[in-house]
From TrEMBL:
Keyword Phosphoprotein: no
InterPro entries, per the entry: ZnF-Chromatin_assoc, Znf_C2H2_sf, Znf_C2H2_type
Keyword vocabulary terms for this entry: Metal-binding, Repeat, Zinc, Zinc-finger
Presence of keyword Heme: no
GO molecular function, one term: zinc ion binding
Domain of life: Eukaryota
Domain C2H2-type: 14-37
Protein name: JAZF1 isoform 3
């Protein structure tokens, strides 16, 4: 890893779409990303699932697993 790559790896600056906000700790940065840059709209999430993304953020799985189970149950009982 080059010096620049290492520096960007260890800085707590948000890299989402030119956001650029800086946070004192990695935990603050992660919380910011989860709250501001990861979609939690059920319609968007469902669309993402249908597209079968090659990777999914672990925080997405942890946060929404309960909700997904609920929506799966609803989907199987409600005719569209
Ligand atoms: Zn950000």
């Amino acid at each position: 890893m080059t010096g620049i790559a290492a520096a960007s790896f260890f800085s707590n600056t948000c890299r989402f779409g030119g956001c650029g906000l800086h946070f004192p700790t990695l935990a603050d940065l992660i919380e910011h990303i989860e709250d501001n840059h990861i979609d939690t709209d059920p319609r968007v999430l469902e669309k993402q699932e249908l597209q079968q993304p090659t990777y999914v953020a672990l925080s997405y799985i942890n946060r929404d697993i309960g909700h997904q189970m609920e929506s799966r149950l609803n989907r199987s009982t409600v005719a569209s």
